[in-house]
Amino acid sequence: MNLNKALIIAAGVLAAVAIVFGSIHAYSTGITKKAIEQTFNNINLVSMEPKQRLENPVRFPYIFSLEIANPDQLTAEVEIISWQVQMDEYDFETTAVSGWTAIIHPKSSRDTCFAPKGKVELSEPEIIDLKEKDIVPLVITGELKVTATYAWVTQSYTHTFRLDSNFIFLPG
User: Fold this and answer.
1) How many whole angstroms separate alpha carbon 105 and alpha carbon 113?
2) Which residues are registered as beta bridge partners of 131?
3) 64-103 as b/e: b if 16+ CB within 10 A
4) What architecture (CATH level 2) is domain 2-167?
5) Which has fewest Cβ within 10 Å: 55, 136, 139, 143?
6) What string of pLDDT tens digits covers the 172 residues of the chain?
7) With contact defined as beta carbons under 8 Å apart, do 83 and 161 qualify?
8) Is the N-terminal amide bond of 61 cis, ω within 30° of 0?
């Protein structure tokens, strides 16, 4: 009789522990998904800045700055896998200027966003062609991997992004 009672109590304790851990797991899964979704939805082009002209052959470097944020300040590890820039019909592969991997919004940090920078180089004929146009379409595409961890739950997703804009080359 005492063994029977002990087994029933043990089964009850195990069931309660399973319910508690299951609830924590479900909550943690929801938090990680929210961190990933908010990071994917907050990618912005901040600037396109010309740098000093390079010689042999003549080329014009431009630095692009993105901002990747997470409004709820949930911790997420962000990695840019690839990044391309298209100006009008010209395609450019972007090279890293600053690190393309960061952890954004750790609770102990004051960081508000991840600000990766990439560089493209335009040749002289491309610059001449683009300066002749009134407005130049700009498309930035890439692939981004976001990993979020909460409690013991870790989720990671890879997502393609696309930013569309227009710009004008000023005479000079």
Assistant:
1) 7
2) none
3) bbbebbbeebbbbbbbbeebebbbeeeebebeeeeebebe
4) Sandwich (2.60)
5) 55
6) 688 888 888 888 888 888 988 888 888 888 888 888 888 888 888 888 888 877 777 788 889 888 888 777 778 888 999 889 999 889 998 888 888 888 886 665 555 678 889 899 888 888 888 888 888 899 999 999 999 888 888 899 999 999 998 888 765 5
7) no
8) no
Task: State pLDDT tens for residues 122-142.
Answer: 888 888 888 888 888 999 999
Q: Which secondary structure element, helix H or strand E, spans residue 158, and what is its range?
A: strand 153-167
CA-wise closest residue to 60 among 116, 115, 117, 131: 131
Beta 59-69 vs 117-123: how paired, if at all? antiparallel
Query: 94: which residues sit within 8 A by CB, 6+ positions away?
Result: 64, 83, 84, 85, 118, 119, 120, 142
Determine contact, residues 47/163, Cβ cutoff 8 Å. no
Q: Across the strands, what pairs with 95?
A: 119
**Which two tokens mark 34?**
């929210």
**Structure tokens belonging to residue 138:** 């700009």
Phi-psi region of 29 (alpha: psi -120 to 50; beta: other; left: phi over 0): alpha
